[in-house]
UniProtKB/TrEMBL annotation:
InterPro entries in UniProt: Beta-lactam_resp_regulator (IPR052173), Peptidase_M48 (IPR001915)
Molecular function GO labels: metal ion binding; metalloendopeptidase activity
Cofactor: Zn(2+)
Family: Belongs to the peptidase M48 family.
Domain Peptidase M48: 114-188
Key words of the record: Hydrolase, Membrane, Metal-binding, Metalloprotease, Protease, Transmembrane, Transmembrane helix, Zinc
Source taxonomy: Bacteria, Bacillati, Actinomycetota, Actinomycetes, Streptosporangiales
Species annotation: Herbidospora galbida
Domain of life: Bacteria
Cofactor note: Binds 1 zinc ion per subunit.
GO biological process per UniProt: proteolysis
Gene3D superfamilies linked: Metalloproteases ('zincins'), catalytic domain (3.30.2010.10)
UniProt name for this protein: M56 family metallopeptidase
Length: 299
């Protein structure tokens, strides 16, 4: 019973921590470290929730979750008692749902990107002024990347007219960060969880928080190449120009929380100390390993 209680407590701690993380602002000072912590909380919550149910169901055998499941399969014995059978069914069902929604979301996103790349091959063009970038003849403001093994950065003709050279360089550096750091993979599990739990305010807020941190991380990458004020003015121009929505499966400049990002670029607060950032990442790694280790813990 020790493993079941420990896993249930761990799942509760992750849920409460995620709820608290949606309202704090220290994450803005170290978005990459905060993203790592968010990923650890999400993964650990899923494994701990499933593990708590399975550990309770398999507790009479005293073998832990992993070895208990192996024993269940090899000996074809079901747990004694209706409650333990229900816990086993619930745990396996939750694990199946969590895995399935991620796989389905990934398949849908991959298909959407494939269709969009095909569309770009028909309507987009190369522009000598911005080598390596695909340009779409559209008067609206748009800038986004289509992630993948061969990521594509796309801008509109309206963006070329709207931004100065420095502002355009800032926007392209922002999109390059999305492509290089594969922020789409960061957002995918949170988007999948929001799809399966649309009624949960914590899940919605968690997705929004991670999406904002992803944009801030891309902003930080861009301001290493260009003055931060150039990116800030580009964000303001996009915000006032009525930029159209980013296609499904792509990552764009982000129209949400523009003023928070602009203020952060123009008036940056004190940077988080390196040892604190490393401490957060180390804590996230330790948290990620905690649930799998408890799966092996004998009852």
């Amino acid at each position: 019973m020790i493993a079941a209680v420990a896993l249930a407590a761990l799942a509760a701690v992750c849920a409460v921590s995620a709820w608290r993380m949606t309202s704090v602002r220290w994450t803005w000072r170290a978005p990459r470290a905060a993203i790592a912590l968010w990923q650890a909380l999400g993964l650990t919550w899923g494994l701990a929730s499933v593990g708590a149910l399975l550990a309770y169901a398999l507790e009479p055998w005293g073998r832990g979750v992993i070895h208990g499941l192996v024993y269940l399969v090899t000996h074809w014995r079901e747990p004694a008692g209706l409650q333990r059978v229900g816990a086993l069914a619930a745990g396996l069902a939750l694990l199946t749902v969590l895995l399935a929604v991620v796989v389905v979301a990934m398949a849908q996103t991959t298909q959407a990107r494939r269709r969009h790349r095909l569309l770009l091959s028909l309507v987009a063009r190369d522009e000598p002024a911005v080598p390596g970038v695909r340009v779409v003849d559209h008067p609206g403001a748009a800038a986004y990347c289509v992630p993948g093994l061969k990521s594509q950065v796309v801008i509109s003709e309206g963006t070329l007219s709207l931004l100065s050279r420095d502002e355009l360089a800032a926007v392209l550096a922002h999109e390059d960060a999305h492509a290089r750091e594969r922020h789409d993979l960061v957002l995918l599990p949170f988007a999948a969880l929001r799809w399966v739990l649309p009624w949960s305010k914590v899940v919605r807020d968690a997705h929004a928080s991670v999406a904002l941190l992803v944009e801030m991380a891309a902003d930080d990458h861009a301001r290493l190449r260009v003055p931060p004020k150039r990116l800030a003015t580009a964000l303001l121009r996009f915000g006032t120009a009525g930029a159209f929505a980013t296609p499904h499966g792509a990552l764009g400049m982000g129209a949400e929380n523009v003023m928070a990002r602009v203020n952060r670029l123009v008036k940056p607060g004190p940077a988080m100390r390196r040892r604190y950032r490393y401490g957060i990442v180390a804590g996230a790694a330790l948290l990620t390993t905690s649930a799998p280790l408890l799966w092996f813990l004998p009852q």
